[in-house]
């Protein structure tokens, strides 16, 4: 079959793009043809379909202009892109895809692309990687803290609190986009929504989406070979952004209290300088090292050699790849009990969980795995087994193509 993939970006940028490229590769192995619709970007990978991509826009640059023309350009492009609608129409007419699979649309491709798909009777599947359909700021965050003020369609709170980039303009555009899409009943133009976690599925239902149109299918990964030394190195690991909601400050406090092993922090972000200063002020005898951003291969190599991985998030993580990749390397994870994390990190099975923001609780878990390496190994083996048994590529392929085939069959019956 021919699958048309829709994604704002066509390079490895985040979890949605990681999933896109993994899924394309998986479908190609199954003999299917992949078509791509995206936005031009300086970092994009090569694509034979790039002639159909929409033009690149840098919202930060446009916003800095602070002119009426720039404001109108941002608003028109973010809410309903005429360009995207025309270009996907041309791509559909040339390639005649059997089904469309969306990874991301907001702000760049926009929901305008859904209308040509409906006009051509192409079934639409949408894998949701964030909360954009129910939260103007897409992540239930306001200045790094969880916020659900917009519940019950009170989207004006996003403007009052300036939750989008702490900007009145950006927050207003985000609110308008959300309201317009609710008025347009965008959910009626999608046949199936796929959520990687049950947490996200339940959130959508809580916010009024039809539960019969939402299916939870976990992201996938295959175990990595050659895990290195069985006992791991002398360090435990954090991998991710250095931002408030990621809970790195809580992790630093816990590491200081635990006084066990060496903490290595991989990643970059707006709080890096502040966190490094905080470590110098608080660390005492604790061994904490900032290693900066690393390539994917370097990250995997460091995971393979670590004792265990810590994910101290204080926001609604969906189905984090940091956990998947740790499991694929046979490593236990200490994760906060929030969002979709507990669906992966099961207490005393694949790792340990702790109360978000509670450094004492986290410290106790770090000490336990540091003092009991055999338990860390046991949980890591269980995590690797979970990947082999449930989160592998083969199982994912069967579920995804099952949805594709059922929708294509239903669509043909409907047309006839």
Give the helices and strands, then pairings.
Elements: E1 2-6, H1 15-29, E2 33-37, H2 59-65, H3 68-79, H4 82-95, E3 99-102, H5 114-119, E4 124-127, E5 141-142, E6 145-146, H6 157-160, H7 168-183, E7 192-195, H8 198-206, E8 214-216, E9 235-239, H9 248-258, E10 262-266, H10 272-282, E11 287-292, H11 296-305, E12 309-311, H12 321-328, E13 333-336, H13 341-344, E14 351-354, H14 359-371, H15 373-389, H16 393-415
Parallel strand pairs: 1-2, 1-3, 3-4, 4-7, 7-8, 9-10, 10-11, 12-13, 13-14
Antiparallel strand pairs: 5-6
Description:
Helix content is about 45%, strand content about 15%. By secondary structure, it is of the alpha/beta class. It folds into 2 domains: about 1-130 and about 190-220 and about 395-415, Glycogen Phosphorylase B (Rossmann fold, 3-Layer(aba) Sandwich), CATH 3.40.50.2000; about 235-390, Rossmann fold (3-Layer(aba) Sandwich). The strands form 4 sheets. A 6-stranded parallel β-sheet has the order 2-1-3-4-7-8, sandwiched between helices. It has a 3-stranded parallel β-sheet with strand order 9-10-11, sandwiched between helices. A 3-stranded parallel β-sheet has the order 12-13-14, with helices on both faces. β3, α5 (about 115-120) and β4 (about 125) form a beta-alpha-beta unit. α3 runs parallel beside α7, α9 (about 250-260) packs parallel to α10 and α9 (about 250-260) crosses α14. The mean pLDDT is about 90.
């Amino acid at each position: 079959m021919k699958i048309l993939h829709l994604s704002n970006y066509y390079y490895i940028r985040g979890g949605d793009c990681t999933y896109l490229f993994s899924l394309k590769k998986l479908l190609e192995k199954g003999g299917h043809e992949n078509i791509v619709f995206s936005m031009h970007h300086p970092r994009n990978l090569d694509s034979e379909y790039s002639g159909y991509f929409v033009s690149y826009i840098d919202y930060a640059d446009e916003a800095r202009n602070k002119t009426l023309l720039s404001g109108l350009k941002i608003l028109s492009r973010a809410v309903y892109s005429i360009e995207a609608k025309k270009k996907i129409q041309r791509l559909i007419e040339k390639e005649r895809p059997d089904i469309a699979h969306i990874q991301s649309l907001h702000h760049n491709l926009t929901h305008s692309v859904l209308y040509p798909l409906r006009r051509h009777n192409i079934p639409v599947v949408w894998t949701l990687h964030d909360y954009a359909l129910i939260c103007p700021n897409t992540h239930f965050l306001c200045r790094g803290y969880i916020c659900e003020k917009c519940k019950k369609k009170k989207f004006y709170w996003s403007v009052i609190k300036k939750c989008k980039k702490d900007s009145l303009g950006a927050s207003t555009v985000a609110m308008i986009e959300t309201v317009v899409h609710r008025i347009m009943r965008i959910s009626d133009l999608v046949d199936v929504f796929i959520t990687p976690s049950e947490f996200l599925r339940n959130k959508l239902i809580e916010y009024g989406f039809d539960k019969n149109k939402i299916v939870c299918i976990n992201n996938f990964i295959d175990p990595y070979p050659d895990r290195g030394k069985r006992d791991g190195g002398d360090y435990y690991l954090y991998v991710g952004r250095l931002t408030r909601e990621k809970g790195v400050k809580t992790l630093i406090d816990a590491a200081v209290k635990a006084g066990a092993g060496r903490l290595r922090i991989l990643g970059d972000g707006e709080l890096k300088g502040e966190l490094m200063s905080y470590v110098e002020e608080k660390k005492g005898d604790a061994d904490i090292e900032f290693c900066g951003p690393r390539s994917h291969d370097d990250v995997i190599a460091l995971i393979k050699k670590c004792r265990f991985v810590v994910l101290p998030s204080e926001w609604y993580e969906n189905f984090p790849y940091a956990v998947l990749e740790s499991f694929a390397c046979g490593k236990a994870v200490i994760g906060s009990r929030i969002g979709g994390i507990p669906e992966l990190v099961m207490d005393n099975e694949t790792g340990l969980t702790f109360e978000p923001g509670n450094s004492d609780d986290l410290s106790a878990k770090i000490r336990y795995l540091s003092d009991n390496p055999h338990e860390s190994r046991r949980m890591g083996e269980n995590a690797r087994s979970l990947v082999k048994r449930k989160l592998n590529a083969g199982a994912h392929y069967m579920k995804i193509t099952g949805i594709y085939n059922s929708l294509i069959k239903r669509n043909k019956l409907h047309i006839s």
